From TrEMBL:
The keyword Ubl conjugation does not apply. Residues 3-359 form the FAD dependent oxidoreductase domain. InterPro entries: FAD-dep_OxRdtase (IPR006076), FAD/NAD-bd_sf (IPR036188). This is FAD dependent oxidoreductase. It holds the Pfam family DAO. Gene3D superfamilies: D-Amino Acid Oxidase, subunit A, domain 2, FAD/NAD(P)-binding domain. The lineage of its organism: Bacteria, Bacillati, Actinomycetota, Actinomycetes, Propionibacteriales. GO terms for molecular function: oxidoreductase activity. GO terms for cellular component: cytoplasm. The keyword Metal-binding does not apply. Keywords: Oxidoreductase.
Length: 383
């Protein structure tokens, strides 16, 4: 029997499974759909340190940016190309430069390489950028990868070490011993014996947690992205306006949009981003797409003449205090959670997998796990 069953074969579940298997833990990954078919498939692949305020999440992001190359080096050679691009990020302001300058200074104090540059220097990095830029910050540590390729590669690494991945299997509940400890996972295909289960169900983690006796407050937050027709090289870095940081950290349920523009290896340009708490409503809202397009043209005027070939959206797992939920659930021995990353799951996945593994096997963690603990008030509703 496996030691650990990971429920959820998206990026976070795959990263946890990969790290556990690399440490010698026997792992089985379950998903009711297909690997990387949910939130992961609706992501941009960002590995960012530039968009987080100083605090626990930023420290996790810094550690994860350092961890990603180590994880990629462990992948089987035949699946190692996940379109990893350490291209750097550029944050620009087109109005008052003071907030961006202050934010970059705070990040530098927290250990981020945040370089304030002049508009002229920004235009050298991105020649097609709007001339309305008043100041900019360059983040050489920002990177990007292809999230579906990366997730499937992580799962391939799990298989190469003797682990297993099962698609189309729904985890329904857990079986517990008389002591209360998890001894198996009940699925629609039968019981799977194990000593621990990891809830990596993304925006559905709250429902799964409740079903197995460990409810957590994780909500879906929807985001939409536009995709252009393939273009010659036109956007060299991840570029976004200074409003993006505020949108990332906001708890407002209403629609928020900010400009995020980046290219992919295939030549398409991804345009985001939106955030909206509307439950699991997947209706395509034209006014959101128009707002994304309008703001993108404001940042890169040439996009006004570029065709959009498709759009996609997805639900991101949102915790009320904006921090991931990582670690063991004290209410159900053997139940672990790895969720709540919202739109930062791709970037934070490498350190998430490492941290869960360190806690599971009992070695000193590489980051402080305390801020992410499961039994904090915002997550379990305690006073």
């Amino acid at each position: 029997m496996p030691d650990v069953v990971v429920v959820g074969a998206g990026m976070i579940g795959a990263a946890c499974a990969e790290a556990l298997s690399a440490a010698g833990v026997d792992v089985l990954v379950l998903d009711r759909g297909t690997p990387a078919g949910g939130t992961t498939a609706a992501g941009e692949g960002n590995v960012l340190v530039s968009d987080k305020e100083p605090g626990p999440e930023l420290q996790l992001a810094i550690a994860s940016r350092q961890e990603w190359p180590k994880v990629l080096a462990r992948l089987p050679e035949q699946v190692a190309d996940v379109e990893w691009e350490p291209k750097g990020g550029l944050v620009v302001a087109t109005t008052d430069p003071a907030p961006l300058e202050k934010f970059a200074a705070q990040q530098r104090e927290a250990g981020v390489d945040a370089q304030l540059i002049t508009p002229a220097e920004a235009f050298e990095l991105e020649p097609l950028l709007t001339r309305a830029v008043t100041t900019a910050a360059y983040y050489p540590e920002d990177a990007q990868l292809q999230p579906v390729l990366a997730t499937t590669a992580l799962l391939a690494a799990v298989r190469s070490r003797g682990g297993e991945v099962r698609s189309g299997v729904t985890a329904v509940s857990v079986r517990r011993a008389a002591t209360g400890r998890v001894i198996g996972v009940e699925t629609d295909a039968g019981l799977i014996d194990c000593v621990a289960v990891v809830n990596a169900c993304g925006p559905w983690a709250g429902a799964f947690g409740a079903a197995v006796g460990g409810p957590i407050e994780v909500l879906p937050r929807r985001g939409m992205i536009l995709v252009t027709a393939p273009l010659p090289e036109c956007v060299r870095h991840k570029v976004y306006d200074a409003d993006y940081v505020g949108a990332v950290g906001s708890g407002d349920a209403d629609l928020q949009t900010s400009t995020v523009v980046e290219s992919t290896r295939s030549g398409t340009v991804l345009i985001g981003s939106s955030r909206e708490r509307i439950g699991f409503d997947d209706t395509v809202k034209v006014h959101v797409l128009r707002e994304l397009a309008r703001k993108a043209v404001g940042l890169f005027p040439f996009l006004a003449d570029v065709a959009v070939i498709r759009t996609y959206g997805g639900f991101r797992p949102y915790a009320p205090d904006h921090l991931p939920v990582l670690g063991p659930d004290p209410r159900v021995p053997g139940l672990w959670h790895a969720t709540g990353h919202e739109g930062a799951g791709i970037g934070l996945a490498a350190s998430t997998g490492r941290l869960v593994t360190e806690l599971f096997i009992g070695v000193p963690p590489h980051v402080d796990p305390e801020p992410f603990r499961v039994d904090r008030p915002a997550v379990v509703g305690l006073p």
